[in-house]
Amino acid sequence: MEKTNSQARNYFDELMKDYRFKEGYHTCINCGTCTAVCPAAEFYKYDPRQIVATCQTKDDDKIEELLKSDTIWYCGECMSCVTRCPRKNGPGMVVMALRELSIKRGFFVESEKGRQLLPLMHAMVGNVLNYGYCIYPDTFNWENHMESGPVFKWHIEHLEKSLERLGANYKKDGPGILRKIPQESLDELKAIFDVTGATARVKHIEECSAKKAAEMNEDLATYEQKAFEFNSNTHFHDQ
Ligand code: SF4
Ligand code: SF4
Fold first, then answer.
1. Ligand 2 pocket mutation pick from 43, 51, 77 by most atoms within 8 angstroms of CB
2. Ligand 1 centroid to 211 CA: how many Å?
């Protein structure tokens, strides 16, 4: 990402403007309690204590390195750390602010996990705007989710029966699970996206991703598919 002047790289001050950072960042005594309770740290090469310590340096180079890394995408936002920190820090909230800044500056495309934002966003935003749900059977491809074994395959192949047993009202008017969301409500959702800046954010993520795809000599569709499928297997402790 281009650095225009020193002010443009004043990441700590920029983070301090984010209410999540202000809430979650106070003086850290590096005790490591957050890391000890963090479920993500158990599996990933991830250390919330280190993240807060890096912010505490206020060093632009170190913070930029963090913004471009896989590290900030490992957090599961469970907020277990918030309840245990003796200094009332919230590393999970700090991570939220770091993600925001990473997206804003276009740094997210520099990491494998960050590049996954594009397919994730397209799936979620597309479903929300078209159907009113984050996950929707019509667009769900079980072959893309082999981690769940045969469960999703069975569910999709027996959708009608399965939803009937759950008491769903799939695609029908009236109340119930997976009911048809009226067009008027979908239009309202789109208006909320426009007014809150979510539409502009979607466009920004697409533009940054297209730029990175060009840099990697890939068309955007290939880039997106690879971002969804590729796993370098370097993220876990035992790899
Ligand atoms: S628990 Fe709090 S004080 Fe201890 S390392 Fe984590 S953020 Fe710092
Ligand atoms: S919110 Fe993130 S950093 Fe905090 S305990 Fe959960 S996974 Fe770990």
1. 77
2. 37
Class level of CATH domain 6-113: mainly alpha
Locate the domains of the chain by residue range: 6-113, 117-229
Q: What is the mean pLDDT of the chain?
A: 94
Q: Which atom of ligand 1 is nearest to the CA of 30?
A: 5
Confirm or reject: Cβ of 199 under 6 Å from ligand 1. no
Residue 66 clears pLDDT 90, i.e. is over it = yes
- Determine the residue type at 26: H
Phi, psi (5° rounding) for residue 105? -85, -5
CA 36 to chain centre: 23
Q: Is the four-CA dihedral 53, 57, 58, 64 of positive or negative sign?
A: negative
- pLDDT for 239: 58
Q: Which ligand is nearest to the CA of 75?
A: 2
